[in-house]
Design brief:
This protein is of the alpha+beta class. Helices cover 40% and strands 20% of the residues. It is built from one helix and five strands, in the order βββββα.
Length: 89
């Protein structure tokens, strides 16, 4: 699987390219261009790591959604533990 963020050489140095957006990555409003090779490699690795983690989170959410859907189709309801202060919030 191709990673979303890649390092590209640009005029004054290197940039972190967002393949999905088709433009340099932006962090806190700053375009990730003109970086040293080490900084660009490090930034791309961090962004790719976050992107992969987000993908796993989305898969876990989809699985939880499927379980909830199955529950609504006739599975017995989950028992809720009472809150320590007795509220039902």
């Amino acid at each position: 699987m191709e990673q979303r963020f890649a390092v590209r050489a640009d005029g004054p140095g290197f940039s972190v390219w967002d393949r999905e957006a088709g433009e340099p990555a932006i962090i806190a409003g700053l375009s990730q261009t003109g970086l040293s090779r080490d900084d660009a490699d490090h930034t791309a690795a961090l962004l790719n790591s976050r992107n992969e983690t987000a993908g796993r989170g989305a898969a876990e959410l989809a699985e939880a959604s499927d379980r909830a859907r199955a529950h609504r189709r006739g599975s017995p309801p989950l028992r809720r533990r009472p809150r320590p202060n007795g509220s039902r919030a």
